[in-house]
Structures are given as structure tokens and as C-alpha cells.
Amino acid sequence: MRMSASILAFCVLILAGSASAETPKVLTWENLIPAGPPIENPYEHLTLDQQVELEMLAAIRSQFAAGLINEVHPMYEDGREIEHKLRNEGIDVDRMVGLVQKMQAKIAERNGQLAYDLDGQTVRLPGYVLPLEFEGTSVKEFLLVPYVGACIHVPPPPINQTVVVHLNQSYAAKELYEPVWVTGRMTVKQTKRALSLVDGSADVNAGYTIQGMRIDPYTEK
Q1: Phi, psi values for residue 66, rounded to 5°
Q2: Where does residue 149 fall: left (phi above 0), alpha (psi -120 to 50 degrees), or beta otherwise?
Q3: Which residues lie closer than 8 Å to 174 by C-beta, 6 or more apart?
């Protein structure tokens, strides 16, 4: 029995649609941060040293306001010296510290936001492997992070820069923080994982999960 041309064409369209629907969307880590209005940069006319000193002063003032340090603490004295230096350089210290704290609060708010439009999509994302669960000598579950040292040598990335990957088949990782491409179905939902460290363990929050269908060594292409 022959299939009519119209039915054949319809089947071809259905198959093509299914194939295109499964074509992974290639992401960068910036895609995991929802778009928003630009955050005002208070550092535009400052030197790098002044930027660092203002951030240090903002942190010291925040700790003092929270009661974590007092006026006889060495950090408080450091803050006094920084404040004196910046005032001599013609900087309105109180105004600039306020702007820095405002910028930091907006960054923290942005870091907690998730790109819900990615939920359920098949995606392809590069990153570094930080193992969570092994199957023999292979990795079954891991964190995908955007830079080397995340969660161990430096503080963990924000939740919208941390992805939990569950693999359908375990992967023989060659090294810690091995660079890879991960392809799979993304779920947008905050989760928490316990990460084993040399000196104990730590909880890491992630905003995304990928059910990994494929993992490949990282290449630029």
C-alpha cells in the first residue's frame, strides 16, 4: 500500500518539528540571570584603589551597624583610616558608601532571581564539574559552576550561577573542575545539596537542575 503524498508530507513535517523541538538551546551563564534594568555604577570616576577602599569601608560599617565589631576592634580603626584618606582625596565618603551599599543590595537581589523561561527546555551549557555523587569511580551527580574554585576555595556562586546535574549515565571525570558541555532538560527550581569538603561538608544552593542526557569535553566550538 502506497502512502499518499499529502500524508507523507505531513509525517515529514511532524518528524521535523519533533527534531527541532529537541535541538538544545546553547546557553551562556549570563542567560541564567533574568534581564533587568541596569544597576547604577558608583565607581565610574574612581581609581581601582578607591573602589576597593570604599567596598572595605562599606563592609566595616555594615559589621559595626550589625554589632559584629565595636569601636576598639582593629577593623573599626582601619575604617577610620580609610575614611580619612578618601576624604583627603576629595571623596564624599558618606554619600559614596551609601551608593556602594545600594549597588550591593541590588546585585544581591539580582543574584537571587531565576530565569523561569528556561524551565522544561533542552539546553546545552558549558561549565566546570564539581562532583556530588559517585558511582564507583565515575560521577553520577555534580554541580556545574562557571569558574574554577567555586564552593571550595572561594564562596559559592549565587543560585542563578549554580546548576545541579543528574546524569542518565555516569561520567568518568578526569579531574576536579573538569571543563565540559552538558546537554539535558533544565528545571528551574531552587534546591540544596551537601558538598563534601576536606574539612567537612557545606550546603550549596542551586537555582537550576539539568537532567543530563549528554556530557562532552569542553571545546570552544
Answers
A1: -85, -5
A2: left
A3: none
User: Between vectors from CA 201 to CA 150 and to CA 184, what angle results, nearest 5°?
Assistant: 55
Q: What does the alpha-carbon distance between residue 55 and residue 107 come to, in Å, rounded to a whole number?
A: 14
**Domain 114-217 classification at class level:** mainly beta
Q: What are phi and psi of 42, to 5 degrees?
A: -80, -5
* Cα(171)–Cα(137) distance, integer angstroms: 9
Give the bridge partners for 165, in sequence order.
Answer: 142, 210
Q: What is the pTM of this model?
A: 0.73
> Which residue's C-alpha cell is 581601582?
48
| Residue intervals in the chain for CATH 2.40.50.870 | 114-217
Tell me, what amino acid is at 47?
Answer: T
Strand ranges (DSSP E) for the chain? 25-26, 122-135, 138-145, 163-171, 179-197, 200-217
Find how far residue 39's CA is from the centre of its chain: 18
DSSP state of 27: -
Largest Cα–Cα distance in the chain? 93
pLDDT tens per residue, range 52-110: 999 999 999 999 999 999 999 999 999 999 999 999 999 999 999 999 999 999 988 98
pLDDT tops 90 at residue 185: yes
192: nearest Cα among 200, 180, 202, 179? 202
